[in-house]
Amino acid sequence: RRGDGTYFRFSTGGGIAVHSAPDITGPWEYKGAVLPDGTSIKLWDGKMDAWAPDVHLVGDTYYLYYSAVRAVVFDGHNLAAVGVATSTTMDIGSWKDLGSTGVQSKDSSEYNAIDPNLFIEDGRSYMIFGSYVDGIFQVTMENPPATATPNTYAKLAYEPAGNHANEGPNMFKHGDYNYLFFSNGVCCSFDTSKPAAG
């Protein structure tokens, strides 16, 4: 929510589609795209998509982090990057794409650079991300938080069984504890020979 009370909603696809509303209950109106011409990140010769936006106000600037991925059906390749765009208003046309934060992955990477989430604690910024293939990771961010600090990566969570499908992390602080939320498992590999529970 912006200081004037306007609510904003950002979504995967369409260059990071933006809707706004005067109240959280609506009515919601499509405003345009953060990246109408697509991301400036180019990791291969084909088209790149922008996924999983995460927006935070840091000082007087809004930072929108996104996953830049190959615009193809997932084929086992980990060619991805975490990008960032900034704005002081969140209005369409005000976003500046700064490109990659430096969090990038390729087929030989331990992680997949997707699903970014900024977490700030005691004035330090961290990017929580990943990963679907090998766990949830964290990296320290510079100040301002547009660039990852090299050699500060740490694995936060890992599913040792199956296909290691952890992704979509979000970290929150409540009281003295930090809470890491993430999805686990595969959406479409359930046993269709049994009825759903309940």
TrEMBL record:
What family does this chain come from, according to its entry?
Answer: Belongs to the glycosyl hydrolase 43 family.
- State the protein's name: Endo-1,5-alpha-L-arabinanase A
**Listed pathway(s):** Glycan metabolism; L-arabinan degradation
Tell me the GO molecular function terms. Answer: hydrolase activity, hydrolyzing O-glycosyl compounds
Give the record's GO biological process terms. Answer: carbohydrate metabolic process
Q: Which organism is it from?
A: Phytophthora fragariae
Matches recorded under SUPFAM superfamilies: Arabinanase/levansucrase/invertase (SSF75005)
Keywords from the UniProt entry: Glycosidase, Hydrolase
Q: Where is this site: Important for catalytic activity, responsible for pKa modulation of the active site Glu and correct orientation of both the proton donor and substrate?
A: 115
Q: Taxonomically, what lineage is the organism? A: Eukaryota, Sar, Stramenopiles, Oomycota, Peronosporomycetes
Please provide an example of a Pfam family that matches this protein in its UniProt record.
Glyco_hydro_43
